[in-house]
Backbone:
């Protein structure tokens, strides 16, 4: 049996809610985290047609990229698209979850999915996040250093790139003087004690600091564990903006544009900037990403593919870069398949047979004529 909360926790362990744009609304939007999942439908947008498809395909959890409830509604009246979807989901017993800008800002997320759809290799963030890491330090008897560090690691501390349970340890002498209300595990109250201790340091994402400290305290043998939390300037390899990578073989602009159209299923492209030379290094941002144009140029990309590009932004590209607006739906839909694949893997690892399907409904509101 798989519960809604287990699926959402898995998604958020990959794309934490805390890295979402501050005005975004991500997470479970409708339903109950304790509900049992019978089927999952993954989509880009929640519409009445998508909810009808979910009911037909016996999916009682819809996982969407775009939030159904983006701005706080002041009223929900019949005839309003959002209100009608809320009513329909409640009627059908469908829970609705959204992973939006947190999925945009995470490794393997929206812009990475777009890059892999175009066959790029050596893909990395165009802009990496920083100041998302804290350092937690504690002092523990040497006999308990492994158990305390292990508890902190289980809570999410010590993850650096492809390595887990990373820590630094140093030996030293700790002192303490317990008052009449203390109950020291070592030594006596009212006497200044000196004991051998191990300093344990571990890096942790700022949203896991609370859980790490609770784990530290729970595993620590002292009545009053000492710990410190430090800010860092570390650049994160797990979170950032956009992506950038290399084509396997350099292409002329016209050939590259045909590739983009074919791989993304785009009916049309808007293009500007440099239409000469060869395209090898490509910058991307799924959805609205034109504000990253200057960074794409700075990183010497030959082309930049995104969506929702304004008229004057094409002027800004000048002769420096091929600038491509491939459509909001088209540049974000690849992540729907990636998200569905991750959920399927999670379900399979849990030994469950809950079906996970990608919506067959196109929710693209734009028609090209």
Residues:
């Amino acid at each position: 049996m798989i519960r809604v909360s287990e699926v959402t926790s898995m998604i958020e362990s990959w794309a934490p809610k805390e890295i979402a744009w501050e005005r975004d609304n991500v997470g479970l939007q409708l339903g109950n985290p304790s509900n049992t999942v019978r089927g999952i439908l993954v989509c880009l947008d929640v519409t009445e047609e998508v909810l009808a498809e979910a009911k037909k395909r016996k999916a009682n959890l819809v996982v969407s990229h775009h939030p159904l409830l983006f701005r706080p509604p002041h009223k929900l009246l019949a005839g309003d698209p959002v209100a009608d979807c809320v009513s329909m989901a409640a009627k059908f017993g469908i829970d609705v979850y959204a992973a939006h800008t947190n999925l945009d800002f995470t490794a393997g997320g929206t812009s990475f999915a777009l890059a892999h759809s175009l066959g790029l290799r050596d893909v990395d963030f165009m802009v990496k996040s920083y100041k998302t890491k804290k350092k937690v330090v504690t002092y523990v008897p040497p006999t308990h250093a492994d158990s305390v560090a292990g508890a902190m690691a289980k809570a999410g501390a010590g993850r650096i790139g492809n390595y887990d349970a990373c820590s630094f340890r140093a030996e030293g002498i700790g002192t303490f003087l317990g008052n009449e209300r203390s109950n020291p595990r070592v030594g006596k109250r009212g006497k200044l004690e000196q004991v051998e201790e191990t300093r344990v340091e571990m890096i942790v994402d700022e949203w896991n600091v609370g859980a790490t400290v609770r784990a530290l305290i729970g595993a620590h043998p002292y009545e009053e564990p000492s710990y410190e939390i430090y800010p860092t300037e570390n650049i994160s390899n797990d979170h950032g903006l956009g992506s950038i990578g290399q084509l396997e073989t350099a292409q002329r602009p016209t050939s590259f544009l045909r590739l983009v159209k074919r791989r993304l299923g785009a009916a049309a492209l808007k293009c500007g900037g440099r239409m000469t030379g060869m395209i090898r290094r490509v910058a991307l941002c799924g959805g609205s990403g034109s504000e990253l144009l200057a960074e794409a140029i700075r990183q010497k990309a030959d082309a930049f593919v995104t969506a929702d590009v304004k008229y004057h932004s094409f002027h800004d590209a000048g002769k420096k870069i091929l600038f491509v607006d491939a459509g909001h739906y088209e540049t974000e839909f690849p992540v729907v398949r990636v998200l569905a694949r991750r959920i399927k893997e999670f379900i399979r690892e849990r030994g469950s047979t809950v079906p996970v399907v990608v919506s067959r409904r196109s929710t693209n509101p734009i028609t090209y004529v």
Q: What stands out?
A: The chain has three domains: 4-99+333-358, 110-128+240-331, 133-233.
